[in-house]
Design goal:
Elements: H1 5-8, H2 12-26, E1 36-43, H3 47-60, E2 64-71, H4 73-81, E3 88-91, H5 95-102, E4 106-116, E5 118-123, E6 143-146, H6 151-164, H7 173-179, E7 181-185, H8 188-196, E8 202-206, H9 207-211, E9 216-219, E10 229-236, H10 242-253, H11 255-263
Parallel strand pairs: 1-2, 1-3, 6-7, 6-8
Antiparallel strand pairs: 3-10, 4-10, 5-8, 5-9
Helix pairs in contact: 3-11
Length: 270
């Protein structure tokens, strides 16, 4: 369905609520069947996966519709705490999902559903000549990163610390990398987009994000330094469809969701 530009400008939670209302209203009338509408807040790196999951889950569960809003895991968690209507939360880390549980905004325990790894990306033409991760600390290299609270930044900081400990990397590698950060973006998709456009010389993203782009080249990270990213989900305590939300999360973490996640390059849970 094509929406007017004004609706596209709405914040994701408000748009999700509006869509939910429209969906509920469209099911009314003689002979109509009840529709269970679920709103899923998910990490930006899951966007491609959830486009496919949305169609697959709705086909396998007639009467259930999904609305998906993606963004920074930290920002979406904050929106849930502030009352944004959501049923399921899917984070690019375990910490944000655990925080929702600890703060009383999610029911049950977080469910780990996937893993990912990190890579360095550069624009296809690589004007800065970044050929190894060590070049991230070279003077003049413009690094695109995400905000401090975004999971990719926490993983990237650990990766940089691991690289700094490897033979051949200078002792001030982490500080030189930090000095080269030219901008801080809202989420990992925004990091990818800026590097694709050549607005930066390099960035650290998930392997799955890099694989989905034809506009960047990857710089392999040494296995000894790479950082495993673990994704977890939870049922939002304020969900108006807790049973449906739990059923979706179980399906997503099970064989149905795993098959789609694997096609996008995600690794299975540990």
């Amino acid at each position: 369905m094509r929406w007017p530009g004004g609706l596209r400008a709405l914040p994701p939670p408000l748009l999700a609520l509006l869509l939910a209302g429209c969906s509920a209203g469209s099911g009314a009338g003689p002979g109509s069947t009840a529709t269970e509408h679920l709103t899923v807040f998910a990490a930006a790196s899951l966007q491609g996966v959830l486009d496919e999951v949305q169609a697959a889950y709705q086909a396998a569960h007639p009467g259930t519709t999904l609305t998906v809003s993606t963004g920074s895991s930290a920002a979406l968690g904050t929106q849930i705490e502030l009352g944004a209507p959501a049923d399921v939360y899917l984070s690019a880390d375990t910490a944000n999902a655990q925080k929702l549980v600890a703060d009383g905004f999610a029911a049950g325990s977080p469910v780990v559903f996937a893993r990912n790894e990190l890579t360095v990306i550069v624009p296809k033409d690589d004007p800065a000549g970044v050929t190894t991760p060590a070049d991230l600390a070279r003077p003049g290299v413009r690094i695109i990163a995400a905000g401090d609270a975004v999971p990719i930044t926490k993983y990237a900081n650990r990766l940089v610390a691991n690289l700094a400990a490897l033979p051949g990397y200078p002792a001030d590698f982490a500080a030189a990398y930090a000095a080269n950060v030219a901008s801080r973006e809202d989420d990992v998709k925004a990091v990818l987009a800026k590097v694709e456009l050549g607005e930066g010389d390099a960035g650290i993203v998930y392997v799955t994000d890099a694989a989905a782009s034809a506009k960047v080249r990857t710089i392999r990270v040494p296995d000894a330094a790479n950082v495993p990213a673990t994704y977890a989900g939870a049922v939002v305590k304020g969900s108006t469809h807790p049973d449906g939300a739990r059923a979706f999360l179980d399906w997503f973490a099970g064989s149905g969701g795993q098959a789609i996640l694997a096609r996008f390059g995600f690794l299975p849970p540990p």
